[in-house]
Fold ABC-2 type transport system permease protein.
Amino acid sequence: MYWKYTLFELKLLISNKKHLLIGLLLLLFFPLLFIQQTNETHITVKEQKEAEKEVVDSAIYQMEAIQDSSPEFQAMHENLLQQLSTLNMQIYYINENRELFIEEGYRLHDLRLEAHEQGNTGIPEDNIYPKEKVESDLDMLSYLDQHNLPIETNPNTTSQFLVTSVDMISGLLLLTIVLISGSEILTMERRHETVMSGIPITFFKKMIVKVKIHFLYIMTTLVLGLCIGGWLANNQVGFGSFQQPITIYQNGDMTIVPVSQYLTYMFLAIIVTTLLILILSVLLNLLFNNAFVNLIAGLGIFLIPMLLTPALEYVPFLRPFTYVDMSKVLSGELAETLNQPGLDYGYAMIWLTVLAVVTLIVIYINQKLNFYSLKQLFRIEAKN
């Protein structure tokens, strides 16, 4: 009966126009995203280095206008002149000699670190290169050097496109799609209660079937959409490399990981987030029994904490609802906004899992209370 009910739910879902629209949206979203991305301009490494050169140039100009003859000031002025020379060499070598570009990069790191050790004497505050950025630049350069990877990659290759895609789908967009899918996960059955009540299967088995069918449908269409978008990227630009570095926030610091690891993290987060929202949809269906109210309530639960993110430093119990935007967790943006240094991928995943388990417990309690309430009602009627 379990498998018959599973097939029945699958046919019901596929025949539903709402779910067909969701599937079509997920299939078309990523190819359209690729088309839009190819029309965007991206900052190249050369442009980035030229921008850094302008900052150093500006600092030198402002320092020369001060006319300070102290040894510390003159030493810092000389340091900046060397930084400027090194940046010029990097700009020259970027398309000429990868090894010499990296060598100059190591020299630039040493000069910037030396400037910080000397207190950046005389350098205008707006022109100081952040120490955290100095260290992250070194990590990135070392990774490229050790893995023999190119300095610059096309952002539209398959590997880079997949990173952009999972970042885009993560958060509010995925939340909305899954909530729309699950808005009638039980409501539709309650409309046909006289027919459905005759099926000899428990509520929790029905719930497992419904969550499983919705989850598999969303994941299948999402993966197919990613494959179509990735195929377009491969045909138009190239496959790229899944060993390319990407920076994530982990254990209170920025860490370099390959694209393959980043995508693995994001896919696992999407899976856990989708399951959490579907389980929450079951609870909302039990409480409100109205598709529109279920959708608005679900959006409110997550959207209000997202909109109030800066104030959540003082309302800690609402923080876990913002963790569904895993791209912000991995970038470290959410940890900085919430002033929560311990908020990294592992921490967020644990909390999302806890939320899913707590929601399941609330569903279980709700069903048990309803069961005992009905049992008590039947006893009273029997006595009368």
Residues 310 and 337 are 6 Å apart (CA to CA). The beta strands are 245-250, 253-258. The longest helix spans residues 345-383.
